[in-house]
Design goal:
Distance between the termini: 62 Å
Number of domains: 3
CATH topology of the largest domain: Rossmann fold
Shape: elongated
Helix content: 10-25%
Number of strands: 40
CATH architecture of the largest domain: 3-Layer(aba) Sandwich
Number of helices: 11
CATH class of the largest domain: Alpha Beta
Oligomer: single chain
Largest sheet: 16 strands, antiparallel
CATH superfamily of the largest domain: Class I glutamine amidotransferase (GATase) domain
């Protein structure tokens, strides 16, 4: 872990509100803090470098932070079982789908206290067998099956205690199979399953939960008697014996952190660290793909040892934002001895009151989804890792990479330790790539900044500062919460370089703003691509299901394409009937390495409808420069397609070409029907392009889209004096002009 790490309880704050900072400090030195306004967070010396502005800010120190661990690992906890078990007979049954039998003990259902040697446990042993334990106050007695469980197969496990014979019996069997593997243990006269404290599922030891389980659990059920062999056989075949005392049905309250007991005692529980719900269970038939339509087939929860939704560190510093604070990007700067840390955040304007005519939409949901993305090159390519370290050091950039600090949880572009894709992200933890000076890719040889997301978006902010534009920062959070009422206060709304992840509420708001006369500039690539859902309980917790189609780091399992948080079909917005072309005229078409090319004007560029944007941009080719990939059109590209929603009257004024051959370009999967046939019917090579597009909208509005993730990096070239800078300046000048745009007849 880092010697100094921190995060904020929110990514945006309004004047008059308070933002809290959680800090872990293992340096042994006191921590000092101050707040700065951020002008540029790109450390590249070919540009501005990291540039901040000192401000007057009274940061309150609530406590001297000490060292804290990250409480990772998801599990369920039940607090209200009273004195059960009390020494009487009982049986526990559960359906189990292990996903990682990795040589360590894992808890399934436990009510034990390791320090007091009391209670019982139904667990998986180090060698993958089912293990039963009971404590006598001085030690645990146990037995385990001889045959191990099978990974990624549904099995039924049980623990049966007979108080009369003082024996307990454990076993497991494939779901629906008559074959069983069992073990028996006769307890000593002192041993008893007497337990106190909460019951855990998918972990052990309630005082300090550990032994986290990797896999799915379904329908944990408690009987207050020792089931017969025949009754256990019924449970193995999915026919639960009657008379259960407690049964937790994980198909209930799926959008929440509650686990529901459907028997009369109503002994409900709660989930910790947001495991994946709406998971297919042992009886999934494949007839229904949505958990809402067949809840009995979706009664599983997938737990992971590395799930994390909140570090839960105490607040060390707070800042109440003064009423006169300008809307902008800020950062808390921390130091302790030789260690430094920074935590960026956004000050947005007061609710219901714009302080400028331009709004910049910060893609904080995309930042969170990518938070702590450990790139595969970090472990696979030592030269890449060495190059990253050297370039970051030479430039004075952020020195820490998520690939070497897995403690804080990885991104939804990574995998859990069991190989399943990470579907839940949270900003309530240190996000090492959302930092001033963070470098995504090392490209020292071309003096280009390999930046994405938060650091890359500062190119646009720095340009606005240089050109003396007044602007407000708004974020995804406010857009989701307030909708079009937030946007309609502004004459122009600008995106950053990569606005990829959106909720339905956000898409609705942007379309309503556009059609209500707003002027919208999409200045990136791969935007409005994935559909996400927000936790209804925990701010900052976001879900992504990587369903059918799309450039995906992993693929959701069949039947698990629907979001647990809102019950809607997840995946691509294109698969949900709302392609990006419908909103902004263009959508994701191709991806290559982080290298850029240029745009070439089309003949349409001289049309009076659009000629004004090229004032002072005289050459046919423009944008063959920049800090991001060395060109204005690169890495991830968007193109127009009228069949996907590009308006009939939209004009493609320029397109990119001649993309570097050493950046192997691929079409997004949804563009390919076979290995040779594309969605549009065009040759695959012709679809590798960024289409700069313009169209008018109802009520006097208009949309300008660039179609490239590296576009904003070219604004900075030559101290902001270049063709791309002039082009965007022309667009802003016209978009700020209240004269309505006219829809062509």
């Amino acid at each position: 872990m880092l010697s100094l790490a921190a995060y904020a309880d929110r990514l945006s704050v309004r004047p008059g509100e308070t933002i809290s900072f959680k800090v872990a400090n293992a340096t042994g030195h006191p921590v000092s803090a101050n707040i700065v306004r951020v002008i540029s967070s790109d450390a590249n010396p070919a540009g501005l470098g990291i540039r901040v502005q000192e401000i007057e800010a009274r940061v309150s120190k609530l406590a001297e932070p000490g060292p804290f661990q990250v409480p990772s690992g998801s599990y369920a906890i039940v607090d209200d079982l009273e004195a059960w078990p009390s020494g009487d007979s009982f049986t526990l049954c559960c359906r189990v789908f292990p996903t990682l039998l990795n040589g360590r003990r894992q808890g399934l259902i436990t009510r034990s206290n390791d320090t007091r040697n009391r209670g019982f446990g139904l667990m998986i042993s180090e060698d993958g067998c089912v293990l039963g334990t009971m404590g006598n106050g001085s030690a645990f007695e146990g037995a385990q099956t001889r045959e191990p469980l099978k990974e990624r197969r549904w099995q039924v496990v049980w623990l049966r205690f007979d108080a009369g014979s003082r024996e307990f019996h454990i076993g497991h069997a494939p779901f629906g199979s008559p074959a069983t593997t069992v073990a028996n243990c006769a307890l000593s006269t002192e041993a008893s399953p007497m337990a106190d404290g909460p019951l855990l599922m998918a972990a052990a030891n309630h005082d300090a939960p550990n032994a986290h389980f990797n896999g799915k659990l379904e329908r944990p059920t408690l009987y207050d008697r020792a089931l017969s062999d025949e009754e256990i056989q019924s449970a193995i075949h999915g026919e639960e014996p009657p008379g259960a005392s407690v049964c937790w049905d994980f198909a209930q309250a799926v959008s929440t952190s509650r686990i529901v007991d459907v028997e009369s005692k109503a002994v409900h529980g709660r989930l910790v660290n947001t495991p994946a719900r709406a998971m297919t269970g042992a009886g999934w038939s494949g007839y229904e793909m949505c958990f809402r339509h067949a809840p009995d087939e979706y009664g599983a929860i997938h737990f992971h040892e590395d799930d994390i939704d909140d570090c839960e560190w105490p607040t060390a510093f707070q800042w109440t934002v003064p009423d006169d604070t300008r809307s902008s990007v800020y950062a808390l700067m921390l130091s302790a001895g030789d260690s430094e840390e920074n935590v960026p955040f956004h000050v947005v304007p007061p609710k219901g009151r714009a302080t400028a005519r331009i709004a910049v939409l910060a893609s904080t949901f995309t930042y969170t989804i990518y938070a702590n993305h450990a790139r595969p090159e970090w472990d696979r390519d030592p030269e890449w890792q060495a190059s990253w370290r050297k370039q970051s050091s030479d430039w004075g950039g952020y020195p820490h990479n998520p690939g070497e600090h897995l403690d804080y949880g990885l991104s939804t572009y990574n995998y859990h330790s069991d190989g399943s894709g990470i579907s839940i992200a949270s900003w309530r933890r240190p996000m090492l790539n959302v930092r001033l000076g963070y470098l995504t890719y090392p490209y020292e040889e071309i003096r280009a900044s390999g930046l994405r997301h938060f650091p890359a978006d500062s190119h646009l902010n720095a340009w606005l500062e240089d050109k003396k534009y007044d602007y407000d920062i708004i974020t995804d959070w406010e857009l989701h919460q307030e909708g079009v009422d937030l946007l309609k206060q502004y004459s122009v709304v600008l995106t950053g370089s990569h606005p990829e992840y959106h909720t339905r509420e956000m898409i609705d708001a942007l379309e309503a703003y556009r059609d209500g006369g707003g002027r919208f500039c999409y200045l990136g690539g791969n935007g409005f691509y994935w559909k996400i859902a927000l936790s209804p309980e925990k701010d900052g917790v976001i879900e992504i299901r990587r369903g059918e189609g799309g450039i995906r780091a992993w693929a959701a399992e069949p039947g698990e394409y629907y979001n647990q948080f809102d019950g809607e079909y997840g995946g691509l917005w294109r698969r949900n009937g709302r392609p990006p072309q419908h909103l902004c005229g263009i959508g994701f078409t191709a991806q290559g390495n982080f290298l850029g090319s240029y745009y070439r004007k089309h003949s349409e560029a001289v049309d009076p409808r659009v000629a004004w944007m090229f004032d002072g941009v005289d050459e046919e080719i423009f944008g063959n420069h920049g800090l991001s990939g060395h060109g204005a059109a690169g890495f991830e590209l968007d193109r127009a397609d009228k069949r996907l929603g590009t308006p009939e009257h939209a004009m493609v004024v320029a397109s990119s070409e001649n993309h570097p051959a050493d950046a192997p370009w691929v079409l997004v999967p949804e563009e390919m029907l076979t290995h040779i046939v594309t969605w549009s019917g065009e040759p695959a090579k012709d679809l590798i392009r960024a289409d700069m597009t313009f169209f008018e909208c109802p009520n006097g509005g208009a949309v300008f889209s660039t179609g490239s993730i590296t576009f904003c990096g070219s604004l900075v070239t030559n101290n902001f004096d270049n063709d791309v800078s002039r082009l965007l300046g022309n667009v802003l000048t016209r978009f700020l002009n209240p004269e309505p745009f006219q829809m062509p007849s």
